[in-house]
Amino acid sequence: MSDTAHVVLISTSNADEARTLARALVTERLAASVNILPQVTSIYHWDGILKEEPEILLIVRTRADALGSLIERVEQLHSYSLPEIIALPIVDGSQRFLNWILSEVMTNEDA
């Protein structure tokens, strides 16, 4: 089992998509938990045009060795052609909580 927990940020177009992704990731044991943050505003360039769009942000807790499967699953389910999927290692925190993340997420080795 990997001993590295990660936080993954994923933006979605609406609350239904956010809930669908969050439920799939937790149900499939690719994430220990997911927070859904409503009403974020994203400002970015896309196809040469400055965009300002409302989005929903997911904050996902997972293991390093599950990232590949998590990314693959998000790309399968996501409505965007290029979804934001950014993983950040958790460098410190409550060891009991970090252990819980590691115990909840399954990888190919666990199957």
Automatic annotation (TrEMBL):
SUPFAM superfamilies given in the database record: GlnB-like
Quote one Gene Ontology molecular function term.
copper ion binding
* Biological-process GO terms, alphabetical: response to metal ion
Q: Which residues cross the membrane?
A: none
Q: Which Pfam families match?
A: CutA1
Q: Which InterPro entries match?
A: Ion_tolerance_CutA (IPR004323), N-reg_PII-like_a/b (IPR011322), N-reg_PII/ATP_PRibTrfase_C (IPR015867)
Q: Which domain of life is it from?
A: Bacteria
Q: Which family does it belong to?
A: Belongs to the CutA family.
User: Which PANTHER family does the annotation name?
Assistant: DIVALENT CATION TOLERANCE CUTA-RELATED, FI09726P
Name of this protein: CutA1 divalent ion tolerance protein
* Annotated organism of origin: Herpetosiphon aurantiacus (strain ATCC 23779 / DSM 785 / 114-95)
